[in-house]
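Lab channel / #folding
Pinned by the channel admin:
"Please post every new chain as: sequence first, then the structure tokens as a reply. Keep commentary short and put observations after the output so the thread stays searchable."

First post following the new format, from NK:
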Amino acid sequence: MSQERLFATLGAASAFVAVAAGAFGAHALRARLSPDLLAVFETGARYQMYHALGLLAVAWAATRWPGPWPVRAGWLFLAGSVLFSGSLYGLALTGMRWLGAVTPLGGAAFLAGWLCLAWGASRG
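Reply from TO:
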């Protein structure tokens, strides 16, 4: 599978999970979580969707500006989604506050991914 196809597939799958998580939060968790933990869960879903769209942009950018930078951006967006959104989902569902220490690592991966995508675009 080409990298472009891989990132398009990952982006679409991640968007699917983000929509499912948002619906789960809005319907199944509203009565079960405190408002602050529900907001944490919703933040995870929102950022997952943003970066699912980012993965689709990476798939496009990899065809437009071949090179390592868009690919690096894609892997960083994927890592950021797992670390950032995953830690927020886990925090909200389990109440384990230590997961909040993982969230900034995901945020840093998101930021690095956007820088890589910008660098790839400027170099392409």
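NK: The mean pLDDT is 96.
TO: also worth noting, The longest helix spans residues 35-64.
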